[in-house]
Here is the input.
Amino acid sequence: MIHKIFFILLGVMLAVSSLAQESGKDKRADHRQRVNAMMKQDEEGLITYRKQTVVGFKLTSDGYGGFFEIGRAKSIKKMLLFQLEITEKKNAKEVKQSNPLFPSEPYIYGKENFFYPIKIGVQQQILLGNKSNRNGVSVSTNFGGGIVLGVLRPYKMEVIDNDSDMSTRYVKYNSPDSGLFLTQYLPGPPFSSQVVPGFIGGPDFSQGWNDLSVIPGLYAKAALRFDYGRYNETVSALEVGVTGEYYSKKVPQMAYVPEKQFFLGTYISLMFGSRK
Here is the structure.
């Protein structure tokens, strides 16, 4: 009886071992097929990934900034891009200069606010041309838009607060006590011809953050993207495009310069990331 039980258990163990080996062979074969398919796609330049994550840096016609992007593929040729972007927008009339009478931060005379657009939006990306091989370049177009929050940070100038002890303070351009250094300056560009008594220099990075204001708006953009990455698992791309931003009211950037409510600009960005 014991011998029968032993041979039955031995047979069951051999059967289970055989099934496990077959299952392992099947898994290894499936894995080899997937690897071979990915190698073939990589050689052909075909990009067929489900999602991508990208960070980028951009230069615009009126500033600079960076962004973070998450992409979700809908098909081989179409992908939805979700972007968060932060930039600093400058005015064409800005002229940075130094005060020759005092060691101080450089200043931009007539500047009222730093202007930081924060964009949250969605874009549709369409593949126009895939890579001919792994060393090629894929070309796609993307277009879309979303909401933009125009964050204004007051540009505070450093002035002499007390002539007797030469103590200083920072004041906003449009504050009631902005002082002689603003009211006696003759209006009109280029804001760079004289230094007025009582004036020291511009703000450092710590100034103005406790007095932010926000102007909401909408934006739209269209671009061409050139992905030159050697491996399809990574994103290495250059993008050029045009953007338009419309705010709920005019944005005060510079004194004596007409305020704008609509901004149209171009940009070029460099981006890096990964695909899965």
Summary: Residues 180-197 have pLDDT under 50 and may be disordered. Residues 78 and 178 are 54 Å apart (CA to CA). The radius of gyration is 30 Å. Residues 2-44 form the longest helix (43 residues).
